[in-house]
Amino acid sequence: MATERSNEPIGVFDSGIGGLTVVAALQRLLPSENIFYLGDTARVPYGGKSRRTVERYSIEIGGLLLAERAKVIVVACNTASALAVPRMKEIFKVPVQGVVTPGAQAAAKSTLIGKVGVVGTRATISSGAYEHAINSINPGIQVLSAACPLLVPLIEEGMFDDDVTKIMLSRYLGPMLKAGIDTLVLGCTHYPLLRNTIAEVAGPHVTLVDSAENCALAVKRLLADAGIAASPRRLGGLNVALTDATEGFLRSAAQALELEIGDVALRSVQSEEGNPA
Amino acid sequence: MATERSNEPIGVFDSGIGGLTVVAALQRLLPSENIFYLGDTARVPYGGKSRRTVERYSIEIGGLLLAERAKVIVVACNTASALAVPRMKEIFKVPVQGVVTPGAQAAAKSTLIGKVGVVGTRATISSGAYEHAINSINPGIQVLSAACPLLVPLIEEGMFDDDVTKIMLSRYLGPMLKAGIDTLVLGCTHYPLLRNTIAEVAGPHVTLVDSAENCALAVKRLLADAGIAASPRRLGGLNVALTDATEGFLRSAAQALELEIGDVALRSVQSEEGNPA
Fold first, then answer.
1. Last residue of a domain, one of B171, B186, B211
2. CB-CB under 8 Å, A156 with B154
């Protein structure tokens, strides 16, 4: 049953633009929902920064989403999900949904031989969040991880089908492919944009698990459970805001994901008076 | 003649760690000076961000350096030099020295045929700052520029002598080498760490201009002119502070530059009360 909160937006945040892969998945699955997306482009990337800094940024961005009346906060950034979701859940009353748990559940379901690979940023991988989440579902699964710090820059350069990208993917994935994984978690919201090239390098015997799709499913369940899903009779919209005015990668990502993005708003993440971004 | 201010430190800042190349050059040239280095690792990189954001960050970091009693502010970041130095000079009373003007002067002096190449981040190149600075010295010099957005990530991965780095350098430098430049400005403080590989790709007929060396010379002149150079009888020290607690690349860069770095301090760039970084 629709309540007063039903028409409020789903708040989605990422350190930058990569979280739009989650927005695309949400729009496919929940076309009636309004979505407010906030990309912290003024401080992107989070992937090499410390837990304390990532927590601080995530809480600040969460506050900005609540100011937009978000009924749920979707942390569409693996680094922030791995490092900051526990603290956000302590602080905020609205439900907070990260991408790590849905990705881990899908991986545990997918693997037939109990060997899962995880790729992500340096911060995500060294947090051990996926390994921990997968092993708390099934302690028998062997998890092989690889930090892939160059993939985000390569993706942001639009080098999706480039020799250099293939060389780097072969290096990053080599050891886990040799070890015989049958499932690979794309543990960074940028990576689905590179899905075809990753599939090519990983080969036909490896199932790719995309945290974006699985996160959207988790949000759908969460809205239903809380009785705050939008009425199916309406058509939802998408609003995008960034913390820095550079839009370069936004347009190419939106095009690749077939997202309609209108005017992009700016939000300040500086709290000093009289000096908005 | 030494004044009261002579023993105060030279304040050096960069978006991250790359500015340590300027510190190394300053230490070689001015061994008596104290240096306080501040790397804004919580918001690194600046190279893809907007002018307004880079200005705001630079002014904030400048303020932190003044709180350390800096007698001069050295902007050891090409992006901040290209985008924020004019505004910093309006705001701060202490001298502000960027890396663009010294680099442009050296390039204008170096070229014999009037064809100079400039490589840098996207923000530095699209600002046109080097082109403008070189042409205000000599309007007859043809300046060919290339944004090299992947070089900083490659350098931060320590991939100095790697095939992938060589492939990317060949792509970035190809057109300007074909056009026959005889001088190449390394317009990003990270790039001197890649000097050997760049020299290999550029070939023996291209002179590399390193903005770090030339910036250190400019600081030496500036201190002498203002009468605030340290007494030559003393030995200067180096203090390093970062805005985020991740030190990964710091140690490898310091090693490559043979810099002695002791304990690293933290400085907060968040102005909300009660939530220091």
1. B211
2. no
